[in-house]
Amino acid sequence: MHVWGKPSLTHLRFLSTLRIIPNNTSLYFYCTASKNPSKFKDDYIKLCSKGSLKEAFERFNTQIWSDPSLFSHLLQGCIPKQSLTQGKQLHSLIVTSGLSSDKFVSNHLLNMYTKCGELQTATALFDVMPRKNIMTSNILIGGFIQSGDLELARKVFDEMPERNVATWNAMVIGFIQFEFNTEGLDLLYQMQRLGFRPDEFTLSSVLRGCAGLKSLELGQQVHGYVVKSGFHSHSCVGCSLAHMYMKCGCMGEGEKVFEGMPIHNIVACNIVIAGRAQNGHSHGVLDQFNLMKMAGFKPDQITFVSVISSCSELATLGQGQQIHAQAIKAGADSAASVRSSLVNMYSKCGCLDDSVRAFSESKDLDIVAWSSMISAYGFHGCGLEAIELFEQMEREGMEPNDVTLLGLLHACSHSGLKEQGNIFFGLMIDKYGVKPRLEHYTCMVDLLGRSGCLDEAEELIRSMPVKPDAVIWKTLLSACKIHRNTEMARRIANDVLKLDPEDSAPYVLLSNIHATAERWGDVSEVRRAMRERNVKKEPGTSWFEVKNQVHQFCMGDRSHSKWKEIDLYLKELTIEMKEYGYMPDTSSVLHDMEVEEKEQSLAHHSEKLAIAFALMSTPSGVPIRVMKNLRVCNDCHLAIKFISKITVREIVVRDASRFHHFKDGQCSCGDYW
Ligand code: ZN
Ligand code: ZN
What we know:
Layout: H1 9-17, H2 37-50, H3 53-62, H4 70-78, H5 84-96, H6 103-115, H7 119-128, H8 134-146, H9 150-159, H10 165-177, H11 181-193, H12 200-213, H13 216-228, H14 235-247, H15 251-260, H16 266-278, H17 282-294, H18 301-314, H19 317-329, H20 336-348, H21 352-360, H22 367-379, H23 383-395, H24 402-414, H25 418-430, H26 438-450, H27 454-463, H28 470-482, H29 486-499, H30 504-516, H31 520-532, E1 541-546, E2 549-554, H32 563-579, H33 595-603, H34 606-617, E3 624-628, H35 634-646, E4 651-654, E5 659-663, E6 666-667
Parallel strand pairs: 3-4
Antiparallel strand pairs: 1-2, 1-3, 4-5, 5-6
Helix pairs in contact: 2-3, 2-4, 4-5, 4-6, 5-6, 6-7, 6-8, 7-8, 8-9, 8-10, 9-10, 10-11, 10-12, 12-13, 12-14, 13-14, 14-15, 14-16, 15-16, 16-17, 16-18, 17-18, 18-19, 18-20, 19-20, 20-21, 20-22, 21-22, 22-23, 22-24, 23-24, 24-25, 24-26, 25-26, 26-27, 26-28, 27-28, 28-29, 28-30, 29-30, ...
The structure holds zinc ion (ZN) (2 copies).
């Protein structure tokens, strides 16, 4: 009969503070040889790693042991299911069998407590542990970092008489993870000075930290270090470097790192695809997607999210549908993130019904999916549906975040639901605990402006706690245009131009406002200012997709192969429209042209060309979807209403700010955009 050691008094006392009462059966721990020790050990380890703790325990109690290391398997087995009760039972067993001074066993015990989130107990245990090594402190540091308590992690770190490379790595990763970047980098340099080499995982994590902060400067510093220390050829470091550059908007640098990587894997491909998508290089996304498939990589959920979101940027429905089909084939379409991007894509391509389908077929709806669907309703002018969905979401116990609320406010403003919008805005801080960002204020200015409360809107901009940008002023400027408030427009335009003197939009808006009021002198003045400052108006471009081919039209552009037919079709259509009462709205055209010339220039606006071509190339009755890079002009808006009535077609136009659903001579925007 053999007892490993005497149960130490300190540890017995410690057990009682944890309210663990040692039972008699565990008071002594015998050591005799088992009949078939190795088979027994194998079975036992299997039970532990499977998490079958009860069975493992039974064996543990009935069998007789010779190997204290077997405690570790059982302690490890407690972690996945956070089985604290069993963990404490083991603790008792360890103490009563006199093993509490065994470094190996007590480190495993400490690890069990930290991984089960019992940091207080872990700290107390740490304090009474007679023999500690570097590993002991590392375990506790890991626990503190995991719980976000960097101060305590730092304290343990500072008190360590000796550290190893794992200690340093854990500290660097921890500090960067919680955005204490200066401290994290300081530690990185310190460890290097002391001769510890950070490993590839530490460097990857540091780079990801830089990416999260979009701190190019920091990222470049780490890049320099990576090259010096020879880690740039490690695939995970290369991926993080490319990711960092792309997150910071440096596409070229990111691509260069990607090209320089010795081997490409799915992670690297996904990083390039996501980087291109985030930086608006949507065409490049599809190219890389095809390349990666040709190279034999199987796209996963992450790939599909980026590729689908690029299709929504390009608003290419055909392509989007194809990718959707591929996602189904790859079994990736049920993932929540893929679902949300499908909701977005269909909405942005003008197919609200398909968005609703993608949303309602989802099983696990997360907040991103709900927010996407609320925004989709908003984009399409279905404010009431958006509110209804929001209320349903609340009933299901989901808490809205700033993105959800932004979508909701958008929906209210796009549908002219002033009162509801005001109420939700008021509840943002008090009920939902979300601080409004500039975007939320911009929504409110849009909402107030639309309903003609221009002074209230201006007051909101001047009194809000965030600094106004050009976008919010332009929103108010558009409202001035619609409500024909020339005085305010002039004042606001000055503010906008100060913020962004190169932007043509405020000049164009201001010139249109003056033109509507027939103040030709002022119009000339604005145009002169534009010439003097060399501000060029971005040319209007519209596009339409048919049979997977995108047809693009610029204003007055005669390069399309069917140009003659389109022109003729538009001429005939205009004659018919005029019979129905259409009067071209020439107010936004340069006034020094002849009337006929003005009408001619309006007739060749890009959206009219695209719509004419779409009507010609699709069977009657099929809804058509046209995208435009700028806001649709007054005359085109008016004309499309007539076209929808005459041709009995549903016409969906996505312009720079929203969707217009034209049907039977009406538009869903209610003539406010
Ligand atoms: Zn137009
Ligand atoms: Zn409209």
